[in-house]
Design goal:
91 residues; mainly alpha; 56% helix; phosphopantetheine; phosphoprotein
């Protein structure tokens, strides 16, 4: 069985579903630029990230630490944190 992955496209989809932001919502453009741009600079606040984390937990069956939302200030950091939880062995 293959290990689930979490990509920029997954993050975009879940952010857009949860935030009700217009299509793109600041995440369009060159992936390299978007990955390292602060969420606040692309229009997402802590409430949008909390909703996103909640949706990810439900969809992927994982528990994200509260620090994920506080520490992951860019899409790259958020994707990496989710990826770490996906590969961590179940306790």
């Amino acid at each position: 069985m293959s290990q689930p992955t979490f990509t920029l496209d997954d993050l975009k989809r879940i952010l857009l579903e949860g935030s009700g932001a217009p299509e793109g919502g600041g995440l369009d453009g060159d992936a390299q630029d978007v990955l390292d741009t602060e969420f606040s600079d692309i229009g997402y606040d802590s409430l949008a990230l909390l909703e996103t984390a909640s949706r990810i937990e439900r969809e992927y069956g994982i528990d994200l630490d509260e620090s994920v939302i506080g520490d992951a200030s860019t899409p790259r950091a958020f994707i990496d944190a989710v990826g770490d939880h996906l590969v961590a062995p179940a306790a």
